[in-house]
Amino acid sequence: MLARAGHDDIDAGPRRTSPVRLCVATREVKPTGELIRFVIGPDGAVVPDVKHKLPGRGVWVTANRAAVAAAIERKAFGRGFRREVRVAPDLVEATEHLLGRSALEALAIAHKAGAVAAGFTKVETALSGKTVVALIHAADASPEGTRKLEAAARRRWGGDKDGPTVIEMFTSAQLDLALGRSNVVHAAVLAGPASAGFLARCRILARFRSEDQNA
């Protein structure tokens, strides 16, 4: 949706955000779930607000590396905030890092809620009877273990689109920290409210890493 009257570059604060906002890079109006909010820090620097909770007014950019890079190149942050701002040269990388950390924090919450089974054997057991919504393989996992677990998922769900989402965007070391144990290579995420939050954050991280600026 292209910008139209009533959609401003800047919002009035995190508690006064409408369901849709204007991307200052593409000039398209999108749901806030497809955008990243940015605010101005005390030092005048642009700061990613990946959880949409930081105080102060904010501007929004499509949740994509290319869109954030375009906003920097086109000086869209300064225009959006209607003031001089400082943009760090690594803002794209910093935003991606925060999105990844947010997803891992959500995974930790899901684990505390009892919605994560970690370890090859526990994942295999979960796939045989529990409601698994996501199958996590460490980015550095052995291909053999990954193939075996995905074969187990196919035996249960076949080619059904309702089968678990496969996530391979985190290293074993990152999973270790999130789940509070060592050598996590495979994990199953079970259905539940905390799991839904984790999956939502993984989707926005995957979108951010995609090559389509309008994704």
Q: What this model shows, in words?
A:
A hairpin with a 6-residue loop joins strand 1 (20-22) and strand 2 (29-31). The chain has 215 residues and is of the alpha+beta class. Strands 6-9-7-8 form a four-stranded mixed beta sheet, with helices on both faces. It has a three-stranded antiparallel beta sheet with strand order 4-3-5. The longest helix is centred in the middle third of the chain and has 22 residues, at 91-112. It has seven helices and nine strands; from the N terminus they run βββββαααβαβαβαβα. The chain has helices spanning 65-73, 76-81, 91-112, 120-129, 143-157, 172-179, 193-209; strands at 20-22, 29-31, 35-40, 46-49, 58-62, 116-118, 132-137, 165-167, 186-190.
Radius of gyration: 19 Å
Oligomer: single chain
Distance between the termini: 13 Å
Please count the helical segments: 7
Helix content: 40-55%
Largest sheet: 4 strands, mixed
Average pLDDT number: 91
**Low-confidence runs of at least 5 consecutive residues:** 1-6
Q: If strands are numbered along the chain, what order do they take across the biggest sheet?
A: 6-9-7-8
Morphology = elongated
SS strand fraction = 15-25%
**SSE order, one letter for each helix or strand:** EEEEEHHHEHEHEHEH
Task: List the SSEs and their pairings.
Blueprint: E1 20-22, E2 29-31, E3 35-40, E4 46-49, E5 58-62, H1 65-73, H2 76-81, H3 91-112, E6 116-118, H4 120-129, E7 132-137, H5 143-157, E8 165-167, H6 172-179, E9 186-190, H7 193-209
Helix pairs in contact: 3-6, 3-7, 4-5
